Amino acid sequence: QLKLEDYKDRLKKGEALNQDQLEAVEKYDEVVHNLEFAKELQKTFSGLSQDLLKAQRKAQRRESLLKLEAEKKKLRTILQVQYVLQNFTQEHVQKDFKGGVNGAMYLPSKELDYLIRFAKLTCPERNESL
Known about the structure:
Layout: H1 2-12, H2 19-26, H3 28-87, H4 91-99, H5 109-122
Helix pairs in contact: 1-2
């Protein structure tokens, strides 16, 4: 663009230009228009790129939150199961299930023993002082 402006100035001063220079001066407005168009296009692409990056970050945050919620749900389920299993290690609970009383269904001793052993294997001992 600077070279074309120099040619225009030289032409205004009456200086003789060769054929290529004259053709370049004739296309000055077209070149300026194309440069402006290219600048606008670049701005548009830059804006679209920024929007895309924002959308990607937002999607990643959403995905992270969904994963976190799924992990919380799994942990909640594990803790609930552990709580139920730990209750099988208490004598009064065992008596209720052996007799099918106090809202507990009847469980044969063999099945109850399986649950108690499973509870001891899967549930860590709680330190009540913590």
